[in-house]
Design brief:
Elements lengths: L10 E8 L9 E6 L7 E6 L10 E7 L1
Antiparallel strand pairs: 1-4, 2-3
Length: 64
């Protein structure tokens, strides 16, 4: 996922979380990694072991 504004030096951490309110009882697990100054890798998995087509999440990114 691309950041709306790139960091000047580096990304320190990214935390991703669910932004949907689908009214279902399915739990989602989010993972992040491969940070750069412009984007990060996001993995989302349902608790039942299936994967959606995209990572529809909100995130908090910290960097300098």
């Amino acid at each position: 996922m691309k950041f709306p504004v790139a960091f000047n030096s580096r990304c320190l951490s990214v935390v991703a979380f669910d932004k949907s309110d689908m009214g279902d009882t399915i739990n989602w697990t989010y993972g992040t990694g491969s940070y750069t100054t412009t984007d990060f890798f996001c993995l989302v998995e349902r608790i039942d072991g299936t994967y959606p087509d995209d990572c529809g999440c909100q995130y908090l990114a910290l960097g300098v």
